[in-house]
Amino acid sequence: MTSEKGDGVTLAGNSGARTERAPGARSGRFLAGRGPAYVVILGRFTTNIGFFMVVPFLAVHLTKDEGLSSFQTGLLFAVMEFTRRGLGIPSGWVSDRFGAARILTLGLAVEAGAYVVFTVAGGSFAFWGAAVALLGVGGSLNNNGARSVLASSRSGGVAANLSRYYVSINGAALIGPLIGTALMAAGAMKAGFLIAAALHLGFAVTSAVLLRGLHATNAAPIRPAAMAEALRDRPLMIFCSLAVGGWFLITQYRVALPLTVVHQKLSSDLVGVFTAGNAVVVMLTVWLIGARVERRSTIGRLDLFAASGVLLGGGWLLCAVDGISPVVAAVIVTSIGESLFCGVVDAVVAGLATEGRTGLYLGYSTMAWGVGGMLGGFVGGAFDLAAGHGALTLFWLVLALVGAGYGAGTRVVRRSLAEAVDRRRAAGAAQDGAPSPSPSPSG
Predict the structure, then answer these.
(1) Measured between alpha carbons, how far is 16 from 150 in angstroms, rounded to an integer?
(2) Which of 8, 52, 158, 197 has a 20 to 30 Å separation from 304 between CA atoms?
(3) pTM of the model
(4) How far are the Cα atoms of 96, 220, 338 from residue 230, in angstroms, in the given order?
(5) Which spans in 252-320 are helix H?
(6) CB 103, CB 141: distance < 8 Å
(7) pLDDT tens profile 197-221
(8) CA dist 70 to 17, 59, 73, 208, Å?
(9) What contacts 214, CB < 8 A, 6 or more positions away?
(10) What is the Rg, in whole angstroms, of the alpha carbon atoms belonging to the chain?
(11) Which pLDDT score, from 0 to 100, does residue 430 have?
């Protein structure tokens, strides 16, 4: 569907939606082209610089500067993680109900407000609790709205746009901590909070202006019960269950990797080097594969998803061998596996989304992220226990089996999942009045 002479643009996957009229033909062309994707990707890069500038250092600030205990700090991070990942499903519902662009803007504004509260919370645990909950809720809305806009784009390709999105996140993860380190050294974290607030507020205003033609609301509003109804969507539940394994293994970058550096008595500075190396490899690999993934059929994408399990699980198994070289090799191999995983996971979920429910289905993908991260943190935290019993080889073998398990499971169900995607794509095309797209070769 194209836009002419100022006609409103209907989001893909929201053909039953009402859209506001764009103010002119130029705006219509911008919204129908790659404009929204570039706005979201560049905006995400900018705001994530603010996020990574302060959040990785927040625990130090809370305990050292604000006088909170480590227990209170841990609770605050638990609240932030729950609200950021655990609310993915209701965030997806409101994104479909009120429009992805509106929810993106709202989430950014809420996050900006949270950073401002950070500057005045002082040593009050209650204030910090409210502030991190706001940050998590805003982040959940922002994240779902952004991915829904990309997944609903009719230009540039869903997989390619989502790949660029993950590149922008990893780029910000490289730059933000460097600025945060300087702020910590200068004792200026409150200035960092204000900068982060300004970056989020700036993108909120930008998205409100540039994406207002994408403010779609469903003509037949989705009932809240739809959040539970999606649980009966067997292909979605199968794929999200498999995706838990990928997020479980990716979480080990924050848990098992630092612990193995300490256990092997390597320099603690290598943790930062390995983390940066992971970001660089992911950026390069995702950038290279993005367009190629777009040209693959659903079966081809699921084959890449299965391969990510082999690379992630097999990569971590390399750490069973002592020495810096196996760890370096593990970082490279798992980073490529992470790239394959992140390059296709949301694209497949968006393909499974039934009419008008792209945001809701991406919310379930976010929940898989949260569950995988929680389980990954729990199992990764058993590293020291395994080391104390001389069972580290078993620990790494468990990770390898998780990767092999979700990879093999994907191979088993890939045809049924691909058929589900093709059926829903054909149904959506029929409702739009467009010819059903023919599947591309799986190579």
Answers:
(1) 18
(2) 52
(3) 0.79
(4) 14, 17, 27
(5) 256-263, 269-294, 298-317
(6) yes
(7) 999 999 999 999 988 876 554 444 5
(8) 48, 8, 5, 39
(9) 9, 11, 19, 31, 36, 99, 100, 101, 149
(10) 22
(11) 62
